[in-house]
Design brief:
Blueprint: E1 2-3, E2 19-20, H1 26-33, E3 38-41, H2 53-67, E4 71-77, H3 89-101, H4 103-117, E5 123-129, E6 131-133, E7 142-144, E8 152-154, H5 155-165, E9 177-179
Parallel strand pairs: 1-2, 3-4, 4-5, 6-8
Antiparallel strand pairs: 7-9
Helix pairs in contact: 1-2, 2-4, 3-4
Length: 180
Amino acid sequence: MLVRNPQKVTLTDDGLEIVEGNVHNLEDIQSVLQDCQIVINTFGQPLKGKQTYSSVTKNILNIMNKLNIKRYIGVTGGSLTIKGDRKSLLNKLGAKLFDLFLSDMMDDKNKEWKVLTNSNLIDWTLIRLPFIKEKRETNRIKESLTDMPGSKITNHDIATFIINQINQKKYIHKAPFIAN
């Protein structure tokens, strides 16, 4: 796990190696991906400042290709609208508000989407999320490829869904919405 501040990580597990680094540093990315078989990217960044989702994802995918890693699972917000979506009026309105008030972020999220869809050598999945609640898992995860099925999800349910995607092929080259 590549993290900026290892002292903030409270999770411990014998199978987990914490690597201090920065997702913007190619050497740090390569170091953490060496000998990996799957990449789970939950990179988040502050709303202010230069948006770098697309460049970070592009760098990760390039290093994955170099290291012959085929499986990528990433997360993004439910405001990302792609071809084939049939969002409800409320979700369309929410996405439009993100486009208006966070246009730099949404432009970069759309660039990230293009980076993924042009990466045919990687078995990628991009999970679209609603608002996240810090709670225990509910084990009631709703899924949809066309619209956000709820307004919230717990961080534990996100983790469960991500782990379940590691060996599943259902959402390869797709961007499912999930919610509780």
